[in-house]
Write a structure and sequence with these properties.
Helices cover 42% and strands 9% of the residues. It has 316 residues and is of the alpha/beta class.
Length: 316
């Protein structure tokens, strides 16, 4: 939908309903983060229908949670067609490229001398790092994204502290490499990636973009393509066992859809001879002894919302 004469652009319509400037809206950021609630959703639905000059499905803003998804829907025209295209993309993404296969079925080392861990700044990953660090013979390399004004090791140190993990859990043999799962070879140089291929014995892949609002398309680069890069690393030089963490409750959300595709890739690699183990942790609450709990996840947000509203849904 583009501006033509007096017809407003999609960005203008969305910005007007949300009360923000058009240049403030990022196409792949969920509209809920700009203040979209049930009332503004009704207004936006009416405005979109008027501009599109046709009836729109009631669940449009649930199915298309950001401007990019809305744009795709309005270009395609039907929710079922949009879902069909997404399913087609998921099926294509679930095919493991033929070149990703272990060099030899029994070519991996039995011992864990060097471990690569992704997702160490998350609640689950941080505690996994603490557990791995108890083995004093294991060298641990954490793949961590840098942030503006904060390098990877500082991010990791801050994450451990926020999760109530003693700083002694980060010994010198824990190394940090700055990289990004959504980039080819994690954004590392060829020599740096080759060094990982040569030195790593085992991979613990707990890293993911965790977002219960974003659609599959927005999470695909990190959760699906990132898993492909992990498998590429695992199969290079010699087979490296992969331990894969995910939460799979259904297929109605983009996050779960992306993790389902990622698990399919893992299982394909396992069929080709790569040692693969898949873990499916349920919703994670506080630490059983320290009491620390992540405060930004679904379970914590749900409980806080119930307390603030002084009511809760009648669920089993």
């Amino acid at each position: 939908m583009k501006t033509s004469g007096t017809t407003p652009s999609l960005i203008d319509v969305v910005a007007g309903c949300l009360g923000v400037r058009p240049d403030e809206i990022e196409p792949t950021v969920p509209l809920s983060r700009y203040g979209l609630d049930s009332l503004t959703a009704v207004q936006l639905h009416v405005e979109l229908a008027a501009v599109a000059q046709r009836e729109l499905p009631d669940g449009l803003l649930l199915e298309c949670s950001d401007v990019a998804a809305l744009e795709r829907f309005l270009a395609v025209g039907r929710t079922d067609e949009l879902r069909a295209k997404r399913l087609e993309q998921m099926r294509a993404d679930s095919v493991l490229p033929p070149e990703i296969r272990p060099v030899a079925r029994d070519g991996h080392r039995a011992e864990q001398r060097s471990v690569l861990l992704t997702g160490a700044t998350g609640f689950l990953g941080a505690h996994l790092l603490e557990a791995l660090a108890r083995n004093e013979q294991t060298r641990i390399i954490c793949l961590v994204r840098s942030r503006t004004g904060l390098d990877g090791r500082s991010r990791l140190t801050r994450a451990l502290s926020s999760h109530g993990i003693p700083q002694g859990a980060l010994p010198r043999r824990v190394e940090v490499i700055e990289g990004d799962l959504s980039h080819a070879r994690f954004g590392l140089s060829d020599p740096a990636f080759e060094t990982l291929c040569r030195e790593i014995d085992t991979i613990y892949h707990a890293g993911a973009a965790v977002d219960w609002v974003q659609p599959y398309e927005a999470l695909r680069a990190t959760n699906v393509a990132g898993t492909l890069e992990i498998l590429r690393l695992a199969c290079s030089r010699r087979a490296k066992p992969v331990h894969f963490m995910q939460n799979l409750e259904g297929l109605h959300f983009g996050y779960v859809q992306s993790k389902c595709v990622a698990e399919t890739l893992m299982r394909c690699a396992g069929e080709r001879g790569l040692p693969v183990t898949v873990y499916r942790p349920s919703l994670i609450s506080g630490h059983s002894r320290r009491g620390f709990s992540e405060t930004y996840g679904f379970l914590s947000s749900f409980l806080k919302g119930c307390i603030q509203m002084r009511c809760a849904p009648d669920l089993d």
